[in-house]
Please model this.
Amino acid sequence: MCGIAGVYALGERAPDPAWAIALARCLGHRGPDDHGTWCDARVALAHTRLAIIDVSAAGHQPMLSGDGRHVLVMNGEIYNHAALRAEMAQDGVAFRSHSDTEVLVERFARQGMRALEGARGMFACAFYDRATGDLTLVRDRLGKKPIVWVRTDEWLAFASEARALLALPFVRARLDRAALADYLRLLYVPAPRTLLEGVHKLPAGHALELSGADRAAPPAPRRWWRLPEADPAQRADARWLARLDAGLLEATRLRTVSDVPIGVFLSGGIDSNVVLERLHAAGHRPLRTFTVGFEGLADERPLARLGADRFSDEHVELVIRADVARDVPAVLDAFGDPLGDSAVVTTALIAREAGKHVKVIVNGDGGDELFGGYPRYRFARRVELAQAVPGGFAALMAHYGNDRHKRAALEALRRDGPVAAAHSLGSVLDPRALAGLLAPEFADACAPRAGDLLARTVAPAGHERSLTAAIFAWDAGVYLPDDLLVKVDVASMLHGIENRSPLLDHALFEHVAALSPARRTHPLATKPLLRRLARGRIPAPLLRAPKRGFQLPLASWLDGPLSGWLDGLLGDPHATRALWREGALEAELERFHARRADSNAPLRLWGIAVLEHWARRFAVSLA
Model:
């Protein structure tokens, strides 16, 4: 787990080595254990290191291949590096360290992009060939590790975080108006855009290849991995479940590879308890579990104790008493591209507390996206069942007549199809409420834009055939890599913590994707397949408990300890003033504080405040 960055010359002028030093300095929080730079006439590379595997100096990066021709900077882990090393040693490859980075650079030196086919892990990498001048940027299959890039006439620069790029003299902090439309609906920006004009995310499962022979050629990310299309004949029978069980055990075992202590973040939900049970079955010891409670918020500690009592060797309960007025702005400062998911605060505070005990946390992330854990999956199955009955869809429209969010999704489904409906269900803010706040020249930023988002994702072919399939595609290809995983990555690395997610193993995703979406969901229950697997293994109350999360009490915080921060930002939005109708934000604040606002006002105000905080923090220009 690290930070990576670099500058590649598109012309004849060599990059300034001081740029690599500046990039490493900006990413220092991601790698407190070591840092390094490497430069030649074409490229300047930077790396900061959080040492997890081979913590000795032999794991230092940037790392050269044994013959000195190839240079690699990597952020992430290759969990099966020992098996890959043994395979290559049989072919005569001599290794100088026990580092997974060395395994990858030697494989890439011999196989190019084929080196990634057998790699299981999370990674964002830059490979440089000194002989040809070729540079290749790669992001892992599901987007667990980030990489952003920007191109000018003379340079292409990349980094783990967008804010690092702003340290370069040729990168301007200017708002991307097209990306604003996504942020105002989703509170995040899907790849390949960011809210910084010209700064792009490399989408999950994509590579960006630059040729030393033709450095002026426009770079075009290409997909190197996608989920397979579902097999209509595949059923979730006993044999399929046995393979799922074995795959989960293997995925969990692989994520215990570490030269530093590992902990398990344990909630009161199914996902993390299934992971804990599989860790126990894999024989990993000691099992140290951590459960976090937030003072004044809904608490999962009693439920989590049920799993800890059965499987854990040492259980720690952490109660976080947040200094909201101090902690919230500090967390938001870490995001070079604004993320309006309020759970970034809780995630960062969890990492801060866990970091006092361990450097690696195993979690249950990915279970909702893989097994259908969100309420929208139940809704989608009901819609599809209703569509199969004459008059059923009209009855459903009447049933959800007072539910604005679901009714909007049904209207989008009828008018534009499943992809538009999935986009509608994934939207957080109501565009009609925002339209009244925006200045006329920005009003079109609230227009629905399902567009080609899913076409750019890891979605398998056929995602447009049903609402359930489109939602799975949306969650795996948009929501997961561009909201949830960004939140976990940035908030965790802020405090030097590595998060590992067995349920995000790509082989598991491929196995489950072989089932048709209808067989992965149920109209009355979430995660039906995972519940079948977990029954009799984890405590029964955990299977019955409703889905919970660390939801911030935004209304009470924004009207209480954060009111000064909120009013200071929106009462005088000097960074984003041109976006809003004159007096609109002040009136919105007045209605909120007077308790005359609608129920979505806290989330709407939070999203706008995050945008303004970011624009001020990085002096973003709207011009």
Notes: The first helix runs from residue 17 to 26. Residues 438 and 580 are 4 Å apart (CA to CA). The mean pLDDT is 90. The chain is about 40% helix and 15% strand.
